[in-house]
């Protein structure tokens, strides 16, 4: 049995400038364009957090454009 399974690894919730969320390995450098959001845990815990906080899947730029041109 591998000790490197996803269930035993620690992950971070990361977010980009468009406010899109993902999970990333806690022991690796963050990919360019992404920053740690502050949540750390198992992959499942991180995905559950993302489900709670990422309620509008549209990229930030799209939301801002639509808000500026509505009404």
TrEMBL record:
It comes from Saccharothrix syringae. SUPFAM superfamilies: MbtH-like. GO terms for cellular component: cytosol. Residues 2-52 form the MbtH-like domain. Transmembrane segments: none annotated. It comes from the Bacteria. The lineage of its organism: Bacteria, Bacillati, Actinomycetota, Actinomycetes, Pseudonocardiales. GO terms for biological process: siderophore biosynthetic process. This is MbtH family protein.
